[in-house]
Amino acid sequence: MAERPEDLNLPNAVITRIIKEALPDGVNISKEARSAISRAASVFVLYATSCANNFAMKGKRKTLNASDVLSAMEEMEFQRFVAPLKESLEVYRREQKGKKEARKDKDKKADSEEQDKSREEENDDDDERMEEEEQNEEEEVDN
Amino acid sequence: GPSRLARLPLARVKALVKADPDVSLASQEAVFVLARATELFVETIAKDAYVYAQQGKRKTLQRKDLDNAIEAIDEFAFLE
């Protein structure tokens, strides 16, 4: 499924906020400069993806993983990003683990509340849950 | 700080990853790290460009500041 070109832009508001927070107070950014940075950011993602994918292929893996992205950063001469990225990843992993456990508890609670429903309805809910879990392990990129 | 979660929406970053025909699967973690790396990239390029605005005694970052930074800095060669 082809993406329209405009779908490959990153949100202007977020880009602007990141720029403003990086610069001293009172500094402004022209619309043209902001657009140029936004486009550069999209190119950065595309280039980093391609680079990371090479590492995945070298490792004979079909799934691009976090360490492939970190290897790509080193390859692209952004080694100084690696340490902060590893830190962020640790926080992200803890958060995801917390979410998973919260979901399991919620499911346990929902199961006991659903015992009165028909069997057909319960099966549908199981299918939904399974789909969700799969999505949380890997984002399938259909190509 | 470095442990702040990505603010770029992961869905948008994922759409860019999907645009690569050679990529079949990407883990959610990979998309997250890419998003976070892109934020660091935006911070970096903005700061590097700002040096040129300062040289021009301006408080507004302009397109030419970006162009100058991209031309001068090796890591930004992929943008040329």
TrEMBL record, chain A:
Region Disordered: start-end pairs: 93-143
Subunit structure: Component of the DNA polymerase epsilon complex consisting of four subunits: the catalytic subunit POLE and the accessory subunits POLE2, POLE3 and POLE4. Interaction with POLE4 is a prerequisite for further binding with POLE and POLE2. Heterodimer with CHRAC1; binds to DNA. Component of the CHRAC ISWI chromatin remodeling complex at least composed of SMARCA5/SNF2H, BAZ1A/ACF1, CHRAC1 and POLE3; the complex preferentially binds DNA through the CHRAC1-POLE3 heterodimer and possesses ATP-dependent nucleosome-remodeling activity.
This protein's record includes keyword DNA-binding: yes
Compartment(s) where it occurs, according to its Swiss-Prot or TrEMBL record: Nucleus
InterPro entries named among the record's database cross-references: CBFA_NFYB_domain (IPR003958), DNA_Pol-Epsilon_Subunit (IPR051377), Histone-fold (IPR009072)
SUPFAM superfamilies to which the protein is assigned, alphabetical: Histone-fold
Main localization of the protein described in the UniProt heading: nucleus
Function: Accessory component of the DNA polymerase epsilon complex. Participates in DNA repair and in chromosomal DNA replication. Forms a complex with CHRAC1 and binds naked DNA, which is then incorporated into chromatin, aided by the nucleosome-remodeling activity of ISWI/SNF2H and ACF1. Does not enhance nucleosome sliding activity of the ACF-5 ISWI chromatin remodeling complex.
Key word Phosphoprotein present: yes
One Gene Ontology term from the biological process aspect of the record: leading strand elongation
Protein name as catalogued: DNA polymerase epsilon subunit 3
Biased composition, class Basic and acidic residues, residue ranges: 93-120
GO MF term (any one): protein heterodimerization activity
Superkingdom of origin: Eukaryota
Keywords: Acetylation, Coiled coil, DNA-binding, Nucleus, Phosphoprotein
Coiled-coil regions listed: none
Species whose genome carries this gene: Galbula dea
Transcription factor CBF/NF-Y/archaeal histone domain location: 9-73
Pfam families recorded: CBFD_NFYB_HMF
Biological classification of the source: Eukaryota, Metazoa, Chordata, Craniata, Vertebrata
GO cellular component: CHRAC; epsilon DNA polymerase complex
Biased composition (Acidic residues): 121-143
UniProtKB/TrEMBL annotation, chain B:
SUPFAM superfamilies (UniProt xref): Histone-fold (SSF47113)
Chief location: nucleus
Gene: Pole4
PANTHER family noted in UniProt: DNA POLYMERASE EPSILON SUBUNIT 4, HISTONE-LIKE TRANSCRIPTION FACTOR CCAAT-RELATED
Superkingdom of origin: Eukaryota
UniProt-listed InterPro entries: CBFA_NFYB_domain (IPR003958), Histone-fold (IPR009072), Transcr_DNA_Rep_Reg (IPR050568)
Pfam families per the UniProt record, alphabetical: CBFD_NFYB_HMF
One of the record's GO cellular component terms: epsilon DNA polymerase complex
Keywords, sorted A to Z: DNA-binding, Nucleus
Assembly: Component of the DNA polymerase epsilon complex consisting of four subunits: the catalytic subunit POLE and the accessory subunits POLE2, POLE3 and POLE4. Interaction with POLE3 is a prerequisite for further binding with POLE and POLE2.
Protein purpose: Accessory component of the DNA polymerase epsilon complex. Participates in DNA repair and in chromosomal DNA replication.
GO biological process, one term: DNA-templated DNA replication
Occurrences of domain Transcription factor CBF/NF-Y/archaeal histone (ranges): 6-70
MF terms (GO), sorted A to Z: DNA binding; protein heterodimerization activity
Gene3D superfamilies: Histone, subunit A
Residue ranges the record marks as coiled coil: none
CDD domains attached to this UniProt entry: HFD_POLE4-like
Localisation: Nucleus
Signal sequence coordinates: none
Species for this entry: Galbula dea
Protein's name in the database: DNA polymerase epsilon subunit 4
DNA-binding listed as a keyword: yes
